[in-house]
Predict the structure.
Amino acid sequence: MSGVLGVRFIEAGPVTYCSSGDHDLGIGDYVVVRTDRGERLGWVVVAPDQVLSATVEGPLRVVDRIASEADVDAWRERRRQAQEDIGRAQALATRSDPRLRVASISYDLAGRFAELTYTAGDRVEHDWFARQFGELLEIDELALEQVGDRDRAKALGGIGQCGRGLCCATWMTNFPQISIKMAKDQDLSPNPSKISGVCGRLLCCLSFEVEAYRELRGDLPRVGRRVTTPVGRAKVLSVNTLKQLVRLRFDETGEVVEMGADELRAQYGTAVRPEELESVVEEPRRQKERRIRDTTIAIMEPVTERSATADAPADVAEGGDRRSAEDEAESDGAGPRRRRRGRRGGRRRRRPGDEGAPATE
């Protein structure tokens, strides 16, 4: 957009879009902008040819003038005065309400308007706070705002665990969303003292490299998961994402094996599988197939044919041979086959001619 530029009033603060008016300005120029709370000194961070129309919303403030040396000296003097007044304001807050912690104080160039931010564990009514601070600082108007612990650390500044200035106070303009899962994905200890910043919250830098760690880890099993391998079941002891190494301990032998992540990734799902895959997916399928087979397919046992003469008694075998011969003779000769009568009632019927047996009809 023509004639619109971005101005920043606080280091690592939000960008305010203003109209340049009749001034020809570029990045790094100090300007004075008139606001509802006096004149503010800022510096250009977005040139007019870098501003997109979609990023500009609402009415624009107009750059009043290019900052002079006197304006810069006044701005430095107000910053020094704010640092001194923070201690006085904190002492007053401690006597009235120990929950309050003063985060920052900023003045306009004339020193008649002030903005004060503070933190508290609970929501605090600040009417009495504004009245007492206004009398203490001897200003015309005081604006109070309750902020969070991260905003207080951003305003006060400091040195982080890395030995450098806080990211939020030097270059970050907003706070990212941080979760404990980001620390776990980067193989960091969940100890709060090691992954927390000076604000007492999780480190903002946990979000800087988490996507790279997730890409390196890929679909490798998590620490503590159990897997099945061709040589037995094992437990994942550790996964070194940077060195791409995985340590496994086998249940049967207790042996600890360290293998490359690429090798395990190539076998994962085929030779090396999650234990849950066998118990949750494969075992129910096998049971279902077993039930279907048992209910629909008859199981037949093989029967070995044996000779009747081998197992039958001698007299029965001879009688059977004799009857077979008679049947062959009857089938070869003429005339109908004579019907034989068997035993009835379990008693042997005596025939005429048998010794000691009466003739029966």
